[in-house]
Amino acid sequence: MSENQCITIPVRLDEKTFRRFARFDMLVLRKRWVKPMVFALILCAFAVVALISRLPQSGMIAAVLLAVGLGLPIVYIGMFLSGVNMQAAQWKLGKGRNVYTVQLTEEGFRVTNERKQENTGIVPWEKTAQAFRRKDCIYLYATPAKAFLLPNGQADAPDDAVWACIRKGLGAGKCKE
Question: Which of 14, 24, 129, 166 would staple 141 via disulfide (CB 3.0–4.6 Å)?
Answer without folding.
Answer: 129
